[in-house]
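Morning. Coffee machine broken again, so started the prediction first thing and wrote up yesterday's gels while waiting. Chain of 481 residues, entered below exactly as on the submission form.
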Amino acid sequence: MRISPFDFAIIVAYLVGITLFGAHFRRGQQTLRDYFLGGRTAPWWAIACSIVATETSTLTIIGTPAIAYAGNLGFLQLVLGYMVARVILCVVLIPQYFQGEFYTAYQLLEKRFGNRMKSAAAIVFMGTRALAEGVRISAIGKVVSVAFGTGERWSIAIVAGLTIAYTFEGGMSAVIWTDVAQFALYLTGSVAAFFLLLHKIPGGWHQVTYSAAAAGGKLRVFDFAFSLTRSYTFWSGLLGGTFLTMASHGTDQTMVQRLLAARNERDSKKALLASGVVVFVQFALFLVLGVMLFVFAQHASLPVQGDTDRIFPEFIVRDMPVGMAGLVLASIFAMAMSNASGSLNSLASSSVIDLGARGAGTSPAQQLVRSRRLTLVWGVVLGLLGLIRWGGVLEAGLTIASITYGAMLGVFLLGTWNRRANENGALVGFAAGIAAMIAVRFWTPLAFTWYVFAGTIVTFAVGSVASFASGAAIKPRVVPE
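Came back before lunch.
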């Protein structure tokens, strides 16, 4: 083991403590509304923290510094789009989610188009979310292998098992409030890493800026060149980031479920907008950490063996003082558990609500039992997917999601902006959008930051044409509660 016994004790104490804290939210749960929406009792600021914690995964903590270490601050251009998207969502989609008692994002599609469209979207969400979460869970294995010098399988099993335990028991209330605790922990750990790096680099911040400038463009943020093959330019960041976040926060059940858990529409909007400010600040912090690690590595060797995702974990284990290393490592575990818990609850909710697994005529108690069982099933699936080696974790996760996000966002916008659109047209457009982006992924050099934008355009256009060709639009349906 490469860390001290005291650091190890901090990590163990955190893992046990957060599991027990999340599990106690089981009390008072009687209906699906309690289990999947937390009874809509969480304040907006807690939901904002939960959104940020979900958006900030283990991929972010180890992958974002790796991007800046190997390149520059250009990833921040993508984050600008994250903020623009939030404003658009507050106008376009959030008001629609509060025009009924919705548990999932895809019930809105059922209301507009019908059950087939809802089921298709839910199935695609489940596949995409399971794969993307598998990438996130695998990232924790890299951290553990650096910290303990051991294999990755046991670490993945432990993190997945503990997360299943408190999500199984506590539902969405456990997800939100453990996210709040984990958000505070990882932010504290990241700020501590910033100041420690600043202290360890000879010359402090002046040396950071000088060495970064001498390296050629390490502090560069904006690149106004228009290119469809480069991932981080101003245009791909602004347009790509906007469409990516509109899809992830407006159509992905993992995020929408948090917005639906707000007390009302106004609180939902406040939570989403507040989260955008925090996300921008923390991505800037993670990128700056990557630049500082680049400068620090010039004075102290940090072996990464060609895998830049290991650079931040190596610094934590080798150069952080006892106690602080345990805190930061615990914060990375916190992110893994936060993301997995949200995904488990959203996958279970979509299985129960969208695919009819709750069963007609069953009692609320029976529905809760079925929901918990599906949480367990999805936990096993995510754990198995976490054992796969995915390569560069941050871009792998974003790429997987981006392939289907465009089709998902396109069909939501089709239902919102095209009154002539019908279910047959929406299904054709949805399938065309996914097929097009799979082809783009494997047979074109298009940068992944353009995937959602391109997929949205294809889905909306094909869906509109197919709807026109197949007849008049159907009227909005009433979704049974």
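The two ends are 53 Å apart (CA to CA). Going to sketch it on the whiteboard this afternoon.
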